[in-house]
Every structure is written in structure tokens, then in C-alpha cells.
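Project outcomes to date are best conveyed with an example. Our students and postdoctoral researchers have been running inverse folding experiments weekly, and each run begins with a structure described purely in C-alpha cells. The record below, which covers 458 residues, was selected by the lab manager from last quarter's runs and is presented without edits.
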């Protein structure tokens, strides 16, 4: 019954996507992030392919927008990233194991590029921003509501797909949280604002109940950034307290115990394992610095097994650090391009938010929300390997689309000002009046009398 309901929704969005490709693409993003098929206990994900095909069919008539790909700086960088990843796949000693993940990567990349063609105005970009936040926010409601109603629990598993364990689920929710938070300034209806605040509350509850230490650190960094960038610091502090305090109280003992293990350093087993995995990743990088061992972490796992056997255990078969994992998998040029995309996006979106401050509240909210979502990934992925994570690439391209639209708006505004500016009025040149010609006295006596009148009186 659940699957039939999900299939009906997917069929409706897919048919609409053929006519309106923007609806089809937004539906595909929603499905990819929320994964309602997993919630419906479906073992096979065929519905995503149906939505993708229908959305692409609808997008074919937008082929005239292809030049937009090269005008979008983030899109150009993403296309450049394809080269080192492809090299790492086709030169890998484990190409048979790497190729399946590479095919999935290419399929995702096609959909990411299609977003640039379809989302071509501010209104569509606003909806993409909201869908990116709400899709995972609803997953947060599913888990968070359960945890709150049961008086506080600990989640050791995620929702499935890219969020299959507690750490990956917590990272995804930490990335969606600023989108929901700043989305309140994007929507106008009261019920939508209340709904977005509810998504924030339950997402925070879920993150805390996963007991993910990396996600807790990420929340702290994001909260500090929100507070520093706000013009209403007292209100922001009160809002954050209301969102987090109830959930903290429910799981304070186990949460504080878990976070407290950070002070143990190498004495704590999980931290020790991650440090050894990071050390192994640096050894792989030293051996294959330029092209890596193969995209997707599977080649890394096989390579480590070949050189070290199973001495590291299952936990040591990934780097547990996305920066190291990307370099070890796909080489120096891949990590250089990816870092430029992520860090450049954070800087550019912050600059856009600053320019919009006081002039365009909605534009400032979207820029700041995307910036903090990327910051969330930059911090949280330091503790996880997420090289083929679709959510981060959706966010990066969304940021690129938004920045391109803002640049276009700025250009149009400047042109309108130049056209509309009235010409400076010409000041007529007025010749000075001719100096009066002195009258000549007709006699000596009259001249003396005139001179006497002009003398200053004492």
C-alpha cells in the first residue's frame, strides 16, 4: 500500500516533468534526498530512474540554454572535475570494482547539469533552495518525532541510501538545517514559516539523538556563524536555545558521555581507528599522488587490503575524511578542483549575502543558507568519506545557479540605471553685462562735486 502511494506520486511528478521540466527536476531532487521508496520498504529503486528519464525528456526542448553551462562558474568547475575522476577510473588496477560507482556518478552528473538548464530564473531557484532543505528536513521529522515521543532515544541507523548510518544521516540533516532556518525568510505564508521551524526543531533533535560527534561540532560551527551574521543576536540566541534545549535535556546523559570522549584523544577506540585510517590514506596518497587508486572508495578498500591485509579492521578501509579520500581515490587535481568549488562557493555566497544585506532580504537569506550548508559539509565531512555524495553536488550547483542569477540581475540593474539616468542639464552661458561707461563731467566744478559725494563719511 505504501509503495503504491509513492508510485502514484512519482507517476504524477514524472508526467508533469515531461511538460514542465522544472517540476520534474525538483521532484527528482526531492526523491533522491528523501528516498520515500525506502520508507515504503521497497527493495529496488526503479522509480528514481523513471523520474530522471521524464525530467530529461522535458528538458530536451531547453537545449537553447546549453550556453548557460559555460556561463555558470560552478558548472565549469564541475565539468573540469570529470577529467581527473575519469582518469582515476580507467587507469585503476581495480577498474572492475570501481566502474559500477562511476556509472552511478555519471548518471548523477547528468541530472546535476540538467539543473543548470532548467533552473533559469529567480523563482525556480527559490523553489530549488526550499526543496533541498525540506526533503531532508522531513526525514528529520520522521526520526525526531519518534525520538521525542519516546522520551529520547539513540539512533544507530539512518534512513538508507547515502544516509544509511547515524553519522551520514546527521551530516545530511546538518546541511539541510540552515536551508530550513533561512527558508523562513524566503516564504511568506505563516503556516510555511511555522512548518520550517518545525523541521528545524526535529532535525536538531535527530542530529543530537544520533550522538554523532562530528555532527555536534558541525552544529556548533553553524550556530556560531548564524549568530555572528545576524543583526538580531539576542533573538537568534533565544531561537537556537528553544530549538536545541528540549532535545539536549532528553538525551543529556548519553550525549554528554559520547561527546566527552573527544577529550580522550587516542585513548578512545573510535578516534584511534580514524587516526590510523587517516594515516593509511596519507600513505596511499604518497604512493599515487596524481591520479589516485580509483574513484569511489572501493578501490581504496581493495588497495588497503592488498598492502596491509585486515589489520586495520573494517573501519580502516575508508579514510573517514573526505579531503583525504578524494585525493587518495582520484588524485591531486580532483581534490584541488573540488576544494576550489567548495571553498570558492562558501566565499562567493558570503559575499553575495553581504551585498544583499538591507537591500534584498530574500536574496540574503538564500545566499546565507547555501553558504552555511556548504560550511556544514566542509566541517562534517572532515570526519566522513563522502566523495560521491549527491547532496553536496546539488548544493554546489544550486549555489552556482544562484550566483549566476545574481550577477545577471546586477548587470541588468546597472544597464537600466545607465539608460534611465537623465542627461545633465546644460547650463546656458550668459555673457556678463557690459561695464557701464563712465559719464564724463561737463565741467570742473561738477567733477569736484561728484568726487566729494563719493568720499567716505567720518
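After processing, the design step wrote out the following sequence:
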Amino acid at each position: 500500500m505504501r509503495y503504491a502511494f509513492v508510485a502514484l506520486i512519482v507517476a504524477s511528478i514524472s508526467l508533469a516533468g515531461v511538460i514542465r521540466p522544472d517540476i520534474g527536476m525538483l521532484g527528482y531532487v526531492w526523491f533522491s534526498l528523501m528516498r520515500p521508496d525506502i520508507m515504503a520498504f521497497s527493495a529496488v529503486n526503479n522509480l528514481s530512474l523513471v523520474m530522471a528519464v521524464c525530467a530529461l525528456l522535458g528538458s530536451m526542448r531547453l537545449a537553447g540554454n546549453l550556453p548557460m553551462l559555460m556561463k555558470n562558474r560552478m558548472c565549469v568547475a564541475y565539468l573540469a572535475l570529470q577529467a581527473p575522476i575519469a582518469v582515476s577510473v580507467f587507469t585503476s588496477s581495480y577498474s572492475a570494482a570501481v566502474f559500477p560507482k562511476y556509472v552511478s556518478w555519471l548518471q548523477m552528473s547528468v541530472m546535476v547539469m540538467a539543473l543548470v538548464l532548467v533552473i533559469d530564473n529567480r523563482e525556480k531557484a527559490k523553489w530549488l533552495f526550499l526543496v533541498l532543505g525540506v526533503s531532508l528536513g522531513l526525514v528529520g521529522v520522521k526520526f525526531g518525532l519518534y525520538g521525542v515521543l519516546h522520551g529520547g532515544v539513540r539512533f544507530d541507523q539512518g534512513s538508507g541510501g547515502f544516509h544509511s548510518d547515524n553519522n551520514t544521516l546527521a551530516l545530511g540533516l546538518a546541511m539541510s538545517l540552515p536551508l530550513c532556518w533561512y527558508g523562513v525568510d524566503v516564504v511568506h505564508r505563516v503556516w510555511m514559516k511555522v512548518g520550517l521551524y518545525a523541521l528545524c526543531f526535529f532535525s536538531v533533535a535527530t542530529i543530537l539523538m544520533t550522538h554523532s560527534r562530528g555532527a555536534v561540532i558541525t552544529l556548533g560551527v553553524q550556530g556560531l556563524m548564524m549568530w555572528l551574521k545576524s543583526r538580531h543576536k539576542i533573538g537568534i540566541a533565544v531561537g537556537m536555545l528553544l530549538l536545541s534545549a528540549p532535545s539536549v535535556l532528553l538525551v543529556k546523559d548519553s550525549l554528554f558521555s559520547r561527546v566527552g570522549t573527544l577529550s580522550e584523544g587516542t585513548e578512545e577506540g573510535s578516534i584511534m581507528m580514524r587516526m590510523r585510517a587517516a594515516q593509511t590514506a596519507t600513505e596511499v596518497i604518497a604512493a599515487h599522488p596524481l591520479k589516485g587508486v580509483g574513484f569511489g572508495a572501493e578501490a581504496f578498500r581493495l588497495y588497503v587490503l592488498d598492502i596491509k591485509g585486515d589489520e586495520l579492521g573494517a573501519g580502516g578501509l575508508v579514510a573517514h575524511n573526505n579531503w583525504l579520500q578524494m585525493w587518495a581515490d582520484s588524485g591531486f587535481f580532483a581534490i584541488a578542483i573540488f576544494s576550489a568549488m567548495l571553498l570558492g562557493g562558501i566565499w562567493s555566497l558570503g559575499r553575495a549575502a553581504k551585498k544583499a544585506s538591507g537591500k534584498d532580504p530574500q536574496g540574503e537569506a538564500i545566499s546565507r543558507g547555501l553558504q552555511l550548508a556548504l560550511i556544514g559539509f566542509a566541517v562534517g565531512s572532515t570526519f566522513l568519506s563522502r566523495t560521491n555524495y549527491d547532496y553536496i553536488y546539488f548544493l554546489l550547483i544550486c549555489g552556482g545557479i544562484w550566483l549566476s542569477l545574481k550577477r545577471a540581475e546586477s548587470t541588468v540593474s546597472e544597464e537600466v540605471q545607465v539608460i534611465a539616468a537623465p542627461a545633465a542639464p546644460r547650463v546656458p552661458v550668459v555673457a556678463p553685462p557690459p561695464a557701464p561707461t563712465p559719464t564724463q563731467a561737463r565741467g570742473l566744478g561738477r567733477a569736484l562735486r561728484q568726487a566729494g559725494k563719493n568720499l567716505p563719511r567720518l
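Residues 438-442 have pLDDT under 50 and may be disordered. The chain has three domains: 1-65, 67-115+270-412, 122-261. The training component of this project remains on track.
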